[in-house]
Structures are given as C-alpha cells and as structure tokens.
Amino acid sequence: MKIVTEKTIHNTEVERLVAEAFGPERFAKAVYRLREGVAHDASLALVAIDRSVVVGTLRFWPVEIAGGTPALLLGPLVTAPDRQGEGIGSRLMRAGLARAAAQGHRIVVLVGDEPYYRRFGFVRSLARRLDLPGQYDAARFLARELVSGALSGVCGLIGLPDRQVLDKVA
Description:
Elements: E1 2-5, H1 11-22, H2 30-33, E2 46-50, E3 53-65, E4 69-79, H3 88-102, E5 107-111, H4 114-117, E6 130-131, E7 141-145, E8 156-159
Parallel strand pairs: 4-5, 6-8
Antiparallel strand pairs: 1-2, 2-3, 3-4, 3-8, 5-7
C-alpha cells in the first residue's frame, strides 16, 4: 500500500468511500457548510492505494478563524470498511499533518472523536475558544497547533476563507 496525492482519477472512489462512511446525512453537518463552494486543498489531499484501489482518503479545507487567522479543516478521513484496523487512517493522518506543517500551515481543526484523534495531537481544550457555524457537538470539536502557540489569543467563529464569516445559525 502507498500514500499518494489525490488526483482527479481518484474522485469517484473517494466520493464512494465518503458516502459509504457518512451517508447522505453528512451534508447536514456544520463542517459541510464550510466546504460548500470551496475546493479542498489539492496539495494536501491524500489517498491510500492498494493494488490500484483507493482504500483510504484524507482531505483538508481552507478556513479562517474570526475572518483573519488562516487554518485548515481536516476531513473527511475515511478508510474502506474492510480495511479498518490496519493503520491506514493513521498513516494518512501522519502524512497529511506532516505535509501541512511543511507547507507552513499552523492550525488544524476537525470534528471527531477525541480518543481517536488525540494520538495525532488533537484536543478539545485548544478548540474551546473557537466556534463553528450551525449545530455541532462541542465535545467533538478539536484543534491542533502545528506550530506551538499558534492558537494563543485566537478566538472566534470559523468561516470560509476570503469571504465573509458565516452567520452563526441558532
């Protein structure tokens, strides 16, 4: 198995994996509002390929905190159901975060299970002063600093890059 940069030829398989993992209800989630009309960062999009088949995917999306601090929104991270437990997600995470850091990104946020993502440095405490548009489970909203202290003094609503911050949905 190898981890490579996602290419256009992988789109169908990536979308199939994501649909299988999260179903149609994924579009109602708060993080999907931040993806609407915004392309994922193609330089950070990774796929795990085994025997010419996509068995895992990881994408990052550009966002801004309070309309000025750039950050990345991680997700989705998906491993093929029949390949879970083999470390594919961990390999994608390590490769993606290393690539993001090498490109100079400083902050990554996600909505996910802290017991899983903690091993990659994501914690709830770093996201406590941040907010997402719409409804979400605050206990699952996590952040990681790729540069120590990057979130010091940073607070506010996460929105789309180079656009007006999304209105908070009640």
